[in-house]
Amino acid sequence: MDRSDLRYEQYVSILKEELLPAMGCTEPIAIAYAAAKARAVLGSLPKKMTIEVSGNIVKNVKSVVVPHTGGLRGIKAAAAAGAAAGSAEAELEVISDVTKEQIEEIERYLEETGIEVVHVDRDHIFDIAVRAFAGENVSYVRIVDYHINIVEIERNDEVILRKESEMQGDDLTDRSGLTIDGIIDFANSVDLEDVRETLQRQIDYNMAIAEEGLRGRYGANIGKVLLAGHEEDLHYILRAYAAAASDARMNGCELPVVINSGSGNQGITTSVPVIMYARSKGKSPEELLRALVLSNLVTIHLKTGIGRLSAYCGAVSAGCGAGAGISYLRGGDRDAIAHTIVNAIAVDSGIVCDGAKASCAAKIASAVDAGLIGMYMYERGNQFFAGDGIVKHGVEKTIETVGRLARQGMKATDEEIIRLMLEE
Predict the structure, then answer these.
(1) Furthest-apart CA atoms within the chain: distance in Å
(2) CA nearest 308: which of 121, 165, 124, 173?
(3) Which long-range contacts (CB under 8 A, 24 or more apart) does 282-287 make?
(4) What's the half-sphere exposure (Cβ side, CA atoms, 13 Å) at 125?
(5) Shortest CA distance to 291 belongs to which of 308, 305, 310, 278?
(6) If 0-12 CB within 10 Å is exposed, 13-18 middle and 19+ buried, where does residue 370 land?
(7) Crossing angle between the packed helical segments 234-250 and 314-329, to the nearest 10 degrees
(8) Roughly how many angstroms between the first and final C-alpha of the chain, as a whole number?
(9) What is the mean pLDDT of residues 179-184?
(10) What gap in Å lies between CA 289 and CA 105, rounded to an integer?
(11) Measured distance CA(193)–CA(393) in Å, rounded
(12) Are 295 and 266 in contact (CB under 8 A)?
């Protein structure tokens, strides 16, 4: 694929749009971002806030630690952190520079401020709105569809920004040109200077938090559990490092990650196993970058049909991406990569998303395992065939089917998961 191909610039833009740095789990950070923006619009510290959130936001914020808050969890903590100490200009790194003194301020602010949380059922699976009050002034900020997509800003009776619903998300590059064949062609031919900064940041950030996850004690310590007694087994190492990064991220580690498709766990899953495999096998920096181009775009391709949030665990798609990237590093051709993806989909597509929490690390380990199994199957002359469950003829039809399963078939499952999580 050369630069004259319209897809070339699209693929570069997609990587830059999706591989963003974020501090902490992205849904609470999006709430903090909205609250920080509401404060900026208000012009003073809110004395009261109402946070309106869709069910999937409740699901992904309820149990996760908000970084730089002294271990606080949940929607109110995220909103308090953004309002009391956030910098809206930093977007998904909105609370990355919080000081020790500000952590104490966040705790006081949370105790002293009336923050109401309202579960709303509107047209968007991803929906966050913050209404902030101070004296006679009121501000309103709403985010939909993805984490920094502000579609409404108001102050008192003045409308500062309002995107029409049909325009929401139009500022993202068109994903319809993503195909497995196109992704492989792009990975082979891209001028690495066009993507080097984006991918090197992913390597640096995501490996740093993986190593911290193995050093410290976070959550259920899935990474450490996997690695114990298997320190020389590469199959365990690849899963353990990915899981350890999630251990740390889900449980308050104050290191950033580079996300994929709006999720830090997906960014970790699609990158860390590929990085560890390349290092263990002495692959060149250029080979690693090309493999990461492939793994990230495969994950994005799968997630485009599924959507940002659903009952379908996003780590499954990222595990497929990791398996494809490792197959690429092993010299796999188009058929090897495509069959790795299809096989991995067939193995792990039943994993549900019941929110961001410590057990995500174990799901990540399972997703990476499925990617590796899918790769090993094809290398040994084995595969799943069309008609085996949801597997269809060809990788693109199978990917399309997964999108339908997640977006349509699992809609009722998602609603029931949210109801269960809201029960006392």
Answers:
(1) 71
(2) 124
(3) 283/329, 286/192, 287/329
(4) 19
(5) 278
(6) buried
(7) 140
(8) 54
(9) 98
(10) 42
(11) 36
(12) no
Return the closest-CA partner of residue 256 out of 210, 218, 303.
Answer: 210
Q: Residue 406 in contact with residue 306, Cβ under 8 Å?
A: yes
> Global pTM?
0.92
Tokens representing 396 are 């693109």
Which residues are CB-contacts of 92 (< 8 A; sequence separation ≥ 6)? 20, 21, 22, 23, 26, 29, 30, 33, 147, 148, 259
**CB within 8 A of 346, min separation 6: which ones?**
374, 384, 388, 389, 390, 391
pLDDT tens-digit map of 272-329: 999 999 999 999 999 999 999 999 999 999 999 999 889 999 999 999 999 999 999 9
Quote the pLDDT of residue 168.
46
Token couple for 274: 């590929």
- Chain center to CA of 337: 23
pLDDT (tens digit per residue) in 392-403: 999 999 999 999
Q: What is the pLDDT of residues 74-95, one digit of tens each?
A: 999 999 999 999 999 999 999 9
Cβ atoms of residues 304 and 178 within 8 Å? yes
d(Cα 277, Cα 350) in Å, to the nearest integer?
26
Domains of the chain by start residue, with CATH: 24-167 (3.30.1330), 180-422 (1.10.4100)
Token pair of 33 as six digits:
């971002």
What is the rounded (10 degree) CA torsion for 321, 127, 206, 243? Answer: -70
Question: Do 341 and 323 meet the contact criterion of CB atoms below 8 Å apart?
Answer: yes
SS (H, E, C) 11-64: HHHHHHHHCCEEECCHHHHHHHHHHHHHHHHHCCCCCEEEEEECHHHHHHHCCC
